[in-house]
From TrEMBL:
This is Cytochrome P450. Its cofactor is heme. Heme binds at C450. The chain crosses the membrane at residues 6-29.
Amino acid sequence: MQLTSILSVALCARFLACYIGFVICRWIYRLSPLHPLAKFPTPSRLACASQWYQFYWNAVRGGVYLFVIEKWHEELGPIVRVGPNELNINDPAFLNVVYSHKFERYGAFYNGLKGPVDSFMGAPAAEHRVRKRIFGPLFSVANIQNLEESMRYFIEKLANLVSTTGKNGQGVEISRLFGCFTTDVVSEYMFGRSFDCLETNLDSRPYESIMACKSFAWWIIWFSPIVHLFDLIPYRIVKTVAPKALVGITDLIDLSTEKTVEFTRDPVKARSMTKTDHPIVLDVLLGDPNSPYSRNPKWAIGDGIIAMAGAVETVGPTLIAGIYHACVNPLVQRKLHEELTLAFPGGTKMITAAECERLPYLVAFIKEVLRKSPPLITRIPRVAPKGGTTLGDVYIPEGTIVSMSSYLMHHKPEIYPKPHDFIPERWLATTPSSPEEKAWMPYSRGNRICAGIHFAHTELHMTFAFLFLRFKMKLHPENKLEDINAFVDMISRHGQRHLLVSVEDMEN
């Protein structure tokens, strides 16, 4: 027995020694001239030796690796080696190549990003095409036009809350209002019934769940296999013992599962309980018994979660950023109000999405908000195709991870002069072929671009139009959000959101 124990210890020691030797040899190779990426500049040998360097800056230090890379680009040019097998590119000339069908998604990133749910975000290319063919049209321009009256209902409810709360000079904590508002809008379209967050004292379980997940985004991505194990444990146990971020995930899964089961078990009854005239996402996905979604209900659960999180995390922060910039730039706010007053002399009841999208200054304002504060700021990775490829005159070896970031692209001074200043006027004379338009990518690019881009744009145009036509806003004296640009990369922007504004109701 003792001999067996000694042999077991010796075997473990040998295995450990072999593994340490392998890791050291791999470090040496990654740093050697023999590595395929050795020719690319990098200021950090640690970044080239181990991917745990990225883990340190993103998970431990809290999402700041993007800003480290920003400094590297300033020193070393548009292509920088940022990992053992990864390049970051900051040149708009390569955008449409890197995010084409030729470059495949980087599975480890997407599998971690989607967490323990089965969403089209992490699906292989063939499955992604099948799911997007069904899911994508639900967020087309034509379908989003059918949602305009529904959006108007929630926008009016939001505006009335702003007016009521802001009476007598009280500050309006507009950040939470926007979180609840965006949750109500998307839940009504997804499930046929709103979660009524604006009605329940701004108590938003889905919104809180999304925020909890977001705070630990990099930990969830890096340790996604462990996160997936929680899907096998009963929900009640997970909620008792898991960290707050994982409870947030299970809350979202629970909500989406509950709604999916309703439409799967008795679609007629589920449909009768809705209060809408427009199509409902879950009803369309599950209404046909021969649909791939009907055969795989987990697809509907996963895509419901991702659609909800995506809508809340794109529109909400953009609304916050827009109000902030309008408050600190009174001239911008005045121009918006004047344009909207001329366009809608009868007040907010005349506002339509189509008309809003024809207003030059409002469109320029929204583009500048999305340039300065893109909702999806992280580096989106792709993998170089078999046989490698050439970008310009630079050869990228097969299997190399190539990433780009909207934040870095939107702050290139040679494309956007004074990139850290908020200047809506820069968009008034642009055309689709202008450098500013070619580099603009707030929702990423390519075949995996945000599916809800038209949903987001309609919501943004109508909400900003309502608010700037009806209210005059400024930062409240007790406001603590001093700089909207104080944020970190938690896949989407993550920063202080407690924006307190004073409002003057121009309509009432």
